[in-house]
Amino acid sequence: MTTSPDPTPGVALAIEREIRVEASPDTVFSYFVDPERIIRWMGTTATLEPRPGGDFRIDYNGKDIARGTYLVVDPPRRVVFSWGWEMTGDPVPPGASTVEVTLAPSGRGTIVHLRHSGLPPASIDGHVEGWDYFLPTLAGAVAA
């Protein structure tokens, strides 16, 4: 795990993760832009409009709902979307942080590099836990 330093209280932080997935970048990319595929590894329903300015919304369980917009959609290399939670009072409201995913071919697989930036210190642990759970779940979903 890489987490950027917190030189001053209240400064936004970033989480970085990398995982190898046994599929082509084209296939892995689809798991970030296709609602039927994204819910195979996170959430129960999703509304995705994979174009700059398009909606990004994942409902995990009826109360935990992540929402933002797609910022960059560059198949099959890169996808960037804003991120936050719809719950009132959450330290990361919709669109307040940014998730950048880059995909690089690696043999017959793909290296997935995820950087989640703009997170307040109070939300780091929860987001670390989330990505540490969901990225291996992505690898399993793609392999299934």
Concise account of the structure shown:
By secondary structure, this protein is an alpha+beta fold.
Looking at this protein, list some descriptive labels:
144 residues; alpha+beta; Alpha-D-Glucose-1,6-Bisphosphate, Chain A, domain 4; eight-stranded antiparallel β-sheet; 8 strands; globular
End-to-end separation in angstroms reads 26 Å
Label the overall shape.
Answer: globular
For the residues shown, what is the average pLDDT? 93
Count of DSSP strands: 8
Q: How much of the sequence is in beta strands?
A: 35-45%
CATH-assigned fold name:
Alpha-D-Glucose-1,6-Bisphosphate, Chain A, domain 4
For the record, the count of structural domains works out to 1
Superfamily (CATH H level) name:
START domain
* Cα Rg: 14 Å
Low-confidence stretches: 4-8
Name the helix and strand elements from N-terminus to C-terminus, one letter apiece: EEHHEEEEEEH
Across the major sheet, the strand order is 1-2-8-7-6-5-4-3
CATH domain class name? Alpha Beta
Quaternary state of this entry equals single chain
CATH architecture: 2-Layer Sandwich
Share of residues in helices: 10-25%
Number of helices: 3
